[in-house]
Write a structure and sequence with these properties.
globular, about 40% helix, 9 strands, about 230 residues, five-stranded mixed β-sheet, disordered N terminus, Glutaredoxin, 2 domains, alpha/beta
Amino acid sequence: MLGQPHATSLSQILTVATVGQVFLIKRVMISWTGRQLHPADSVLQHFYESKTGLVSRDPAVTMMWLRGQDYTLHTGARMNKTQIGKEVPDLELRATDDQVFRLSDLRGKNIVLYFYPKDNTPGCTTEGQDFRDNYEEFEALNTIVLGVSRDSLKSHESFKSKQCFPFDLVSDTDGQLCDAFGVIKEKHLYGKKIMGIERSTFIIDRKGVLRSEFRKIKVPGHVLSVLDELKNMR
């Protein structure tokens, strides 16, 4: 009979395993432990890190990589599914105030979809405040503003209330929206490579077509640039 795996031997196995083999290993471990393993358990996390050379602090990123195989084994780069001049994927969104809707439900209005790394952090707070302080101009341009991060709805509700945001925040915990717009990128934090949201903004027109994108954003002056782009669309 097989015994429970030793940590060192498991690490060695995972280093050379394929994606199919790692899920088989996971099922065997479930039978040993009698419980469902969380995506962040070491059996999956070590496999991800051994194949990509990256450290993911987000379990969902690990699972997206394992299932989708759109991350390359060398850089972890995610390919986006949106293109300027094309309709954006009609995904279901979960937002503050217990809202569930699809992007197609917003047809007839322009949409500014801005992705930010994390609630209540300095840069993300400043960016949100800039959108808040210019919100009337967006309304005058028939435009809805939506902020998106991987934070929970509970976190979003607190962030929105604290900052008095007049727009909603979308919780993308499963990463579908981040995946579609290709905003999960390799970043460096304290000397380690991690996968996380790259600050990005997208303008979708009233017909659901992606018109503009801003990537690798610097917060100062960004909102004014978005407004200028919207005015040029008229």
